[in-house]
Amino acid sequence: MSDAIWTRLSQMRDAGALMELDSLVWDNHSTPAQIVWNTKEQYLQKCPPGSQIVAGIGEDICGYLGFDFPTPLESNRHVYDINIAIHPGYQRRGVGRVLMEAMKRLAAERGIRKLSLRVLASNPGAVAFYRSCGFVEQGRLVGEFYLDGQYIDDILMWCPVEQS
């Protein structure tokens, strides 16, 4: 079996695997509130097919990168807010980097000029990963969340998208 990482836009048939991935990845170290999907319909309403880039190895889905406009304003249509999740069993195998490169290509094709994201300061591995992908801090919401008895900063990061 090949270890090549493939990517594609999410499809309806991915919903179950992506819901399971969310339950494995999102905890109080990676998000201020646990993500819980009660039904597949609820998940698909928030994450419709085509709103994520899915990555896999062989038959396994091992990560995704979600993207959406930050607001409904036309003046904000050059920005994608992104979020990324990698299955714990596939972390540190290049999946995140492949997803980020796929996102940058797709964003450039669609005329997107800026990618933005939020990351908890208590997640230094994620902050380092985003920096290695070209993201820089654009702001910080100091003491934004109270998690496990501590006030945690919410770091806002961004990366320009090179236009082709």
TrEMBL record:
InterPro entries, per database record: Acyl_CoA_acyltransferase (IPR016181), Bact_Acetyltransf (IPR050832), GNAT_dom (IPR000182)
Record-level Gene Ontology MF annotations: acyltransferase activity
Record's keyword annotation contains Acetylation: no
EC id: 2.3.1.-
Pfam families named among the record's database cross-references: Acetyltransf_1
Record keywords: Acyltransferase, Transferase
Domain N-acetyltransferase: 5-162
Top-rank EC class of the record's enzyme: transferase
PANTHER family: AMINOALKYLPHOSPHONATE N-ACETYLTRANSFERASE-RELATED-RELATED (PTHR43877)
Protein name according to UniProt: GNAT family N-acetyltransferase
Organism: Paenibacillus haidiansis
